[in-house]
Write a structure and sequence with these properties.
The structure is a single chain. α8 packs across α9. The chain is globular and about 45 Å long. Strands 1, 2, 3, 4, 5, 8, 9 and 10 form an eight-stranded mixed beta sheet that branches. It starts with 5 loop residues before the first helix and ends with a strand. β2, α7 and β3 form a beta-alpha-beta unit. The longest helix is centred in the N-terminal third of the chain and has 14 residues. It is 30% helix and 22% strand. It has nine helices and ten strands. With 252 residues, it is of the alpha/beta class.
Length: 252
């Protein structure tokens, strides 16, 4: 069965490993509950109705396919390893699993019910043989997958995080990046640092804020945070179909 009891699902990844991250969901209310809305737990019935596809921002097919096509265009090959941070219910993960060799896709999310929804999507797509590695963790502890990654993706993640959480994520990513590894992340771009006024973005009309979810940052602010984590930053630019910009981080 894809839907596990809470006790079991917190203690294992999809391939049977039992990472130390088992206790991570217990910290969510203290660490992240007041930052954004992604702590909400979906029920088994909601997942089987596909409600998770709307909970993660809709545009299920468009955004998932766009993430896959982007990384493929940037050189991702089936034999390489990918970590999808904030993988949610595998909107993009399903596309990566179809393409990648078994065992090479890892997904991490703070929300155990979205990981359950991802398992449900894997079953529906007939991809259980691809041995997805899925983990519930609220501290970005990618080292618990016990592998190095050629690619790391964080789509629509930094848009929901304070700067100190972003630094934590980048530090944890640096620990597991292959020597030529690339970490791609999207963000809402502000015109200058310390931009305190809300920004209404032209395409989606989304409104972002300096100090609450959804967040915006200047490229200078992101570059500073990456420097704290020991990573270099490059702004790639617009990334469709959302109003966000794409960044790539590499080892300094």
């Amino acid at each position: 069965m894809w839907f596990k009891s809470k006790k079991t699902r917190k203690a294992s990844t999809s391939n049977g490993k039992k990472p130390d991250a088992a206790a991570a969901p217990k910290r969510i209310s203290a660490a992240m509950k007041n930052v954004n809305a992604y702590h909400k737990e979906l029920t088994k019935e909601q997942i089987e109705k596909g409600e998770h596809r709307h909970f993660v921002g809709a545009l299920w097919e468009e955004v998932g396919q766009a993430q896959f096509e982007f990384l493929k265009a940037r050189g991702l090959t089936p034999e390489q390893r990918l970590c999808d941070i904030g993988c949610g219910a595998l909107r993009a993960g399903i596309h990566f699993l179809r393409y990648m060799d078994a065992g090479n896709y890892c997904g991490m999310d703070i929300n155990a019910s979205l990981i359950d929804a991802g398992r449900w999507e894997i079953e529906q797509a007939g991809l259980t043989g691809k041995n997805a590695n899925l983990m519930v963790n609220d501290a970005f502890e990618m080292s618990r997958f016990e592998m190095r990654f050629d690619y790391i993706l964080a789509a629509s993640l930094f848009t929901h995080l304070f700067g100190n959480h972003i630094v934590r994520c980048l530090i944890e990513a640096r620990k597991v990046m292959a020597p030529k590894g690339q970490f791609f992340s999207t963000f809402f771009q502000a015109p200058e640092s310390g931009h305190l006024e809300p920004i209404t973005h032209e395409v989606t009309k989304a409104v972002t804020y300096y100090d609450r979810d959804p967040f915006h940052y200047s490229i200078e602010e992101i570059t500073f945070l990456a420097g704290v984590a020991g990573l270099k930053t490059e702004l790639i630019g617009k990334w469709c179909p959302r109003d966000q910009r794409m960044l790539v981080f590499t080892l300094a």
